[in-house]
Amino acid sequence: MKKIAFLVALLAACVAMGRAQESRQDISLSGFALIEPFMSSSTTVEVNSTPAYGALVSYRFMLTPSTALEANYGITYQNSIGYYVNPNHYKILTRTQEISGAFVKSFVFKNLNPFVEAGPAGLIFLPIVNGGTTTLDAKQQTEVGGLAGAGVAYEVSPSFDVRLEYRGFITKVPTFGDSQFATNRWYWISAPTIGVAYHF
After folding, report:
1. Helix (H) or strand (E) run with residue 166 in it
2. Is residue 149 within 8 Å of residue 121, measured between CB atoms?
3. Which CATH architecture has domain 2-199?
4. Residue 177 and residue 79: Cα distance in Å, rounded?
């Protein structure tokens, strides 16, 4: 958690330094899907999950007309992460939070603005203790990794644009504090995203 707080503070400091320039800000609200891949390991653990759906709030501060710093917070409703540890199957219902920052580079073609972005990210895996979770040993886990993405913004008016983006996270496979779930692997989580941004 300290690492995430440091990353957010670093992003805020960069934004403050950029205020000396002419700037443009925007805030966006998006829906996204979190798609975690099947993962197997040399430890004989297999991990699979169902997709999760959630909401994302993003803030961009323009450093130049084509570059920006971005801060994101997202949360999913819930999904199921399954672990097969021979011969047992375990299922953990999970709510996932994202706290991330990124450097964004845009390319302007009239009303169509493609962009790419990359930066640090923290994912907080929150087990939901109910009948859908089959192990009571699952604990909250925070993993620090990276965010990378590419997308396009279509400018509807000077104040609004619609954004379609593919985002992805590289992070360690969660274990929820249970050593028998350890894969000692990293994986790529896909997060297709669509939303609306307001410029001010």
Report:
1. strand 160-172
2. no
3. Beta Barrel (2.40)
4. 18
